Amino acid sequence: MRFYSVKRGLKFSLLACAFFLSGCDILSGQDKDVALKSAKQPEFSFVPDSDAVSYLNEYRRGSGLSGLKQNQILSQAAKNHADYSAQNEYMGHDETAGRAKFSGADPVSRAIAAGYKSRHILENIAYKNDFKEAVDGLFSAIYHRFAFLNLSVDEVGYALASKDKFNAFVFEMGNSRLNAFCARGASDTGAGRFYTNVCADKNLKIKDAKFDNFTGSSKPFVKFPGSTAVTPYFSGEIPDPFPECKITANPVSIEFNANAGEIKFKDFEIFKDGQKLQNLHVITSKNDVNSKFSKGQFAAFAREVFDFGAQYEAVFSYEQAGARNQSAQNAGAQVKQIKWSFKTKTPQNPYFDARDGDVLGVDAGKTYEIFFRPKDCNDLMTRYVYKVSSFAEAQIKQSGTNTLSVKLKGLAGDTLSITAGGMSVKVRLKTSSPEAVRERRAFYVRAGLMIAGVIVIFALIGRKMKR
Questions:
Q1: 283, 241 contact by CB (below 8 A)
Q2: What is the residue-averaged pLDDT of the chain?
Q3: How far is CA 222 from CA 61, 62, 146, 218, 260, in A?
């Protein structure tokens, strides 16, 4: 039997060490022929985002409306319902007497209990803890959007409450001039028509012309999206305006002033790069499954999610009968078109618009957003699983609809495999983390020395046995 000498054992050990020390280079050379998809860079927005009202008002101004002023009484009413929602982990606009934090059965009751004098109240709720996510989500939800863009409101209050992982962001909107009239506590007098049940004191009377003046607007219509970029997708609203699909493009909408006369819908089209988007679902008051649309509200849902950072054009075609107070000779139907352009947002971090089988190239230690583009309008990501290379470190969390936020550390060539629904992608490091290089080299040195020690021991044993 032939035994290795100590000299040959040490020589082999050094070769083993060299192999392990070069291991990172060997790994980094794997799959060099695979085409890596590069991240797209975010487009930064100068939208004021210091607070929820500033952020909300940028959307309103983008649609040609004035901003809402903040009202502390409405904020208190919002806080009361946010506290109730969080305490009871409840989703909805009503409250049940006797439950913790009860402050009023409905939005109007809660506003009056907080000290607001008008009964003209609109409420929006998002179950988020970030005001930008809350506002973005409410503007993509068509029923809630119409509330934010309502022509009759001019002030708002808001509040956030949280308990454990449950969050409630509540917005209460009202009309300042109507509230001031109600606070005066005196009814209008004289001849003519009057409204009651407008104030906290239901018996107070206000002239119909004054009420219309306080709550009306000279703006003929409000379109959305406007000049402020919007998220490309919509998913989830209670009640659901489009239950056939779980994820669609952000709906494009237009609402006409109640004084605009009868609007007869003809067509609603959306274009990108001159190409008409196909398979749109248009909602009107005639086919709204929840019967919430007024006769002047219209929305078009594209079944395919919009692209990020892309320009689109909307075209709404209609016939308009005579508007209120219009002279009889000008009251005939008129065929018209309203055209406008809008743009979609990008994520705030470098991002991928990923499809099944993509291999995404990333830099170590940098945060990326991965949007898993739906294969159809029901391909909504509800869960995901991932596997990372043995020595790599991954930070991963869901940061939005069909979107994961990912940060990967390790050596160039290390991978993170993600499966979400029926889609799988790989994230591969193009660069190495300095700490990973140090750790990997230290590992190979330890491993090499261990192997060297084992070889030396066996060599010594063999030498002894040879004697």
A1: yes
A2: 90
A3: 11, 10, 9, 11, 12
